[in-house]
Specification:
heterodimer, A: about 300 residues, mainly alpha, MetI-like fold, two-stranded antiparallel sheet, about 75% helix, B: about 375 residues, alpha+beta, 2 domains, 6-stranded mixed β-sheet, 11 helices, 20 strands, about 35% strand, binds adenosine-5'-triphosphate, binds magnesium ion, ABC transporter ATP-binding protein (chain B), ABC_SmlMolc_Importer (chain B)
């Protein structure tokens, strides 16, 4: 059999295997995305809906080139975007800080305890997100548990403003996203070959050198993967800021939700959503570049 | 500065087992390794070979006893501060680094200047026959090449001692034999001591200056290959190294020689020139190596054993005759290929008479437990 027909068959097999997933993504992801993209360039109707006319001012409102006849540029949108970016990055860093050492500890437990620990990590999924977040409200509010403890220990004389702050949002986000960070990080830590660590020590490297030269590079794929899985939904999240940020601290997700459901300005909401999308695509682009560089010299399967 | 590069003093290590209890992997081991020596550790799986290496490299902390390297007590030093490098059983090459960075790792850690580092990496790769492969990744190499990279990586920092934990076990037979010779040559060239772990007795016999046979965390015998083979100190060593015919029985004097009378009625005559000499009535085991037997005719002088032949195997160099005595005891004899005619006629008869020289019979203190274990 010639290689070309073999390759042809491979290709058709690939088509069959990837077909359903591709069709699903095309219908339920690409189409809505395109619709959003089109909407973001339409003129908002006076009482909701959209007028069929090219209207770049949705973006102008956000980025500063609005035609003042129609829309006003307001720097608040950029600052909300930057705040969302900051909160998402802090969330990534904090979940990583919690999960990375924990993954090492758990991967070295005996099997029985390991499974129990993994069960504990996934336990929060069994309760509703809203319920879990409202528990944080009970903890953080003025008369809540945290203030009670602080007052009881005479650390503070007046209750602190804990809830409806950026800090509260970050605490909530970290709490929600820990399992998402933990699983990919744990997968790569669990895979780590400890004989390589021994080889490194044998060749004269101390703990710190071994970590930077061997352990960290080999677990980096899990760290990068977990960071992306946390960063993307954290950037657009609106439930956590809605519950724990209240009316005081808003993130992009809340803004978008408001435009669609409250202000009924779909085109502007779509433009904001595209902004999130652009940030996510940029991140994914770098991720793919990273993966490609790592896989460059991998034996190519033909 | 003593003459020994490594000294273990009563090294003891027990591991706690997950199911409770402990297992003693090292049982008060005393071991002196000479400078410039090729020492092989040989023993069955689980006898403590890796643990012994790890005690020297520092990955195992001894419960009791001392490790000295070049005269310094290193018992409490972590692995990265011991002047010893290891070739690991699975090579343990860093998968994310190319060959050059793998080999140069120890120098990079030590902060060796770039130019010298590159030059030494090149030289080390050349030494193992992989010049110019710096930019390959480990997964792009064959098993034998990975083995050589691991070797180059371990010797580049010029350790005082190289530890090798079954480094050849993953290679095929031809490559393994080639590497055995290369390792010996390399050791002579580098002028450092090698401690080489294997559970392949043939490999152990060919490679080592000295051979330490380990069982259950105890060194059974340590001596030159030749002595361990010819004069094993107990039945375990005798049966672990090379094929052997062992006859347990009771000793009795007869003229200048000793007779071992076995329970099934055989009488084995031994000259006991050198080595252990049992007293009258003592329990003893006689060892006759298969190649000590010869085919003899009916009226032959000297002691003989008659067997029924089960199978004759021609190996190219010689004939292996497998048989048993009338009482059912298994016997293996190796007869030179030039005696083809005699072997053929014996095979036709189904019977053979095996002669041996009493001077070639080696006597061991009876330790039936070890022999029974080997058979199991
Ligand atoms: N970390 C450990 N925890 C518990 N038991 C251990 C540990 N390491 C080794 N052992 C036990 O100690 C004994 C000696 O092990 P060791 O690895 O030294 O054997 P070995 O001679 O190298 O065997 P092999 O030829 O199979 O590699 C074995 O019974 C093993 O089960
Ligand atoms: Mg071992």
């Amino acid at each position: 059999m010639s290689t070309s027909t073999l390759r042809g068959r491979r290709r058709s097999q690939l088509g069959i295997l990837l077909g359903p997933a591709s069709a699903f993504l095309a219908i339920f992801f690409l189409c809505p995305l395109l619709i959003m993209l089109v909407y973001s360039f339409l003129e908002p109707g006076l009482y909701g809906g959209a007028e069929w006319a090219f209207y770049p001012d949705n973006y102008g409102r956000i980025l500063g080139f609005a035609n003042p006849e129609f829309e006003d540029y307001d720097p608040v949108y950029i600052s909300i975007f930057l705040r969302s970016l900051k909160i998402a990055l802090i969330t990534v860093a904090a979940t990583l800080l919690v999960c990375y050492p924990a993954a090492f500890q758990i991967s070295r437990l005996p099997d029985r305890w390991k499974n129990f620990a993994l069960f504990l990590i996934t336990l929060p999924f069994f309760a509703s997100l809203i319920v879990r977040l409202f528990i944080w409200v009970l903890i953080l509010k003025k008369t809540g548990f945290a203030n009670m403890v602080l007052a009881g220990l005479h650390i503070v004389s007046h209750p602190l403003e804990l809830i409806y702050t950026e800090g509260a949002i970050i605490v909530g986000m970290v709490y929600v996203f820990i399992p998402f960070m933990f699983l990919p990080v744990y997968a790569s830590v669990e895979k780590l070959d400890w004989s390589l660590v021994r080889a490194s020590q044998d060749l004269g490297a101390n703990g710190f050198q071994t970590f930077w030269r061997v352990i960290f590079p080999l677990t980096l794929p899990g760290v990068v993967g977990g960071s992306i899985i946390v960063f993307i939904p954290a950037l657009g999240n609106f439930i956590v800021p809605a519950v724990l940020g209240g009316a005081k601290v808003m993130m992009l997700g809340n803004l978008i939700e408001q435009q669609f459901l409250g202000a009924r300005n779909w085109p502007f909401g779509a433009a904001l959503a595209m902004l999130v999308m652009a940030a996510v695509l940029a991140i994914l682009f770098f991720y793919i570049r990273f993966e490609a560089r790592r896989g460059d010299d991998a034996p190519v399967l033909r | 500065m003593g003459t020994h590069i490594v000294q273990l003093e009563r090294a003891t290590k027990a591991f706690a087992l997950p199911e409770g209890g402990t297992i003693t992997a090292l049982h008060g081991i005393d071991l002196d390794v000479e400078r410039n020596e090729f020492l092989t550790l040989l023993g069955p799986s689980g006898c403590g070979k890796t643990t012994l290496l790890h005690a020297i490299s520092g990955f195992v902390q001894l419960d009791a006893g001392k490790v000295r390297i070049d005269g310094d007590d290193v018992s409490d030093r972590p692995p990265h501060r011991r002047p010893v490098n290891t070739v690991f059983q699975n090579y343990a090459l860093f998968p994310h680094m190319n060959v050059g960075n793998n080999v140069g790792y120890a120098l990079d850690i030590a902060g060796t200047e770039r130019k010298e580092r590159n030059q030494r990496v090149g030289a080390a790769l050349e030494l193992v026959g992989l010049a110019g492969l710096e930019n390959r990744l480990p997964r792009q190499l064959s098993g034998g090449q990975q083995q050589r990279v691991a070797l180059a990586r371990a010797i580049i920092a010029r350790p005082k001692l190289l530890l090798l934990d079954e480094p050849l076990s993953a290679l095929d037979r031809n490559l393994r034999q080639a590497m055995q010779i290369e390792l010996k040559t390399l050791q002579a060239e580098l002028g450092i001591s090698f401690i080489f772990v294997t559970h392949d007795q043939e490999e152990a016999l060919t490679m080592s200056d000295r051979l330490a046979v380990l069982n259950k965390g105890v060194i059974q015998q340590i001596d030159t290959s030749r002595t361990v083979y010819d004069r094993p100190t107990n039945a375990f060593v005798a049966s672990f190294i090379g094929a052997s015919n062992l006859f347990e029985g009771t000793a009795a004097r007869s003229g200048g020689n000793t007779l071992i009378a076995t329970a099934d009625g055989l009488r084995i005559e031994a000259a006991c020139s050198g080595g252990w000499k049992p007293g009258d009535g003592a329990a003893a085991t006689a060892l006759i190596r298969p190649e000590q037997f010869s085919l003899v005719g009916p009226g032959a002088k000297g002691p003989t054993i008659g067997i029924d032949i089960e199978q004759v195997v021609f190996t190219g160099l010689n004939f292996q005759i497998h048989g048993h005595t009338p009482s059912g005891r298994r016997i293996v004899a190796i007869i030179a290929a030039v005696r083809q005619a005699d072997v053929a006629s014996a095979e036709a008869d189904g019977k053979a008479r095996l002669g041996y020289d009493p001077a070639a019979v080696h006597l061991l203190p009876d330790d039936g437990t070890a022999a029974a274990e080997m058979a199991a």
